[in-house]
Amino acid sequence: MTPALDISGLTKRFGDTLAVDDIHLGVPQGSFFGLVGQNGAGKTTTLSMAVGLLRPDGGSARIFGEDVWSAPERAKAMVGVLPDGLAMPERLTGREVLTYLGLLRGLSRDVVTRRAEELLSVLELDGADGTLVIEYSTGMRKKIGLATALLHAPRLLVLDEPFEAVDPVSAATIKTILRGFVAGGGSIVLSSHVMALVEQLCDHVAVIDKGAVAAAGTLDEVRGARSLEDTFVELVGDQDTGVKELSWLSH
Ligand SMILES: Nc1ncnc2c1ncn2[C@@H]1O[C@H](COP(=O)(O)OP(=O)(O)OP(=O)(O)O)[C@@H](O)[C@H]1O
């Protein structure tokens, strides 16, 4: 079966920094795929290239077989993206953002109105109906970003840190939505630093370290008999075990 997302040899350099170094990853259809890695490991850069937001120096990405760079319209129609540091039309309300982006996606006004209503209600943003996105809290921005990713009912979701800054009640709602999406045949790739969350949600995982894949496979293949956190620390942790502390903080 064609992978939902097929990343082949993606490479990106920023000046002297090799941010992503020949990454190959296959996200099977119907999988819930977690991407983990330390700060600066290259997760956001990889995901940005994979969905056509950042041009790679080398390699390619295909969404259900459609090349993101040579067939962007076909590829992008099938994916919903929650990017890092999402740029939004800030002077619109959440509902206006969804309406605007839904119409741009080619949805009919009726469908957009209905879906926007449901998304705002489920994500508990309907209470802030008159609030402009520029006035949203960080968690609210995350939620409206997720709503824009879901609006056109894509087959693949690519979510960069979807739970960051989201309160526990909203996080539970989002987990339910995402599990339902996968149960309904959708595929998800998400990045996170929270190992427990990845273990709870994902059936596949890749550990990224210094721009390369340190381990990838099903959750059980990657973690074996240990916790994902132990596996992660062992794979990418600082080998220098000397205790680092700020002595001037002790009283
Ligand atoms: N626009 C940019 N210009 C210069 N360097 C960049 C840029 N974007 C990323 N980098 C560098 O590329 C490397 C990978 O960054 P990236 O944001 O992909 O990591 P990450 O795994 O998503 O990190 P985090 O978990 O902190 O979000 C880092 O060294 C970062 O400093």
Automatic annotation (TrEMBL):
<dbReference type="InterPro" id="IPR027417">
    <property type="entry name" value="P-loop_NTPase"/>
</dbReference>
<keyword id="KW-0046">Antibiotic resistance</keyword>
<keyword id="KW-0547">Nucleotide-binding</keyword>
<protein>
    <submittedName>
        <fullName>ABC transporter ATP-binding protein</fullName>
    </submittedName>
</protein>
<feature type="domain" description="ABC transporter">
    <location>
        <begin position="5"/>
        <end position="235"/>
    </location>
</feature>
<dbReference type="GO" id="GO:0005524">
    <property type="term" value="F:ATP binding"/>
</dbReference>
<dbReference type="InterPro" id="IPR003439">
    <property type="entry name" value="ABC_transporter-like_ATP-bd"/>
</dbReference>
<dbReference type="Pfam" id="PF00005">
    <property type="entry name" value="ABC_tran"/>
</dbReference>
<dbReference type="InterPro" id="IPR050763">
    <property type="entry name" value="ABC_transporter_ATP-binding"/>
</dbReference>
<keyword id="KW-0067">ATP-binding</keyword>
<keyword id="KW-0813">Transport</keyword>
<dbReference type="InterPro" id="IPR003593">
    <property type="entry name" value="AAA+_ATPase"/>
</dbReference>
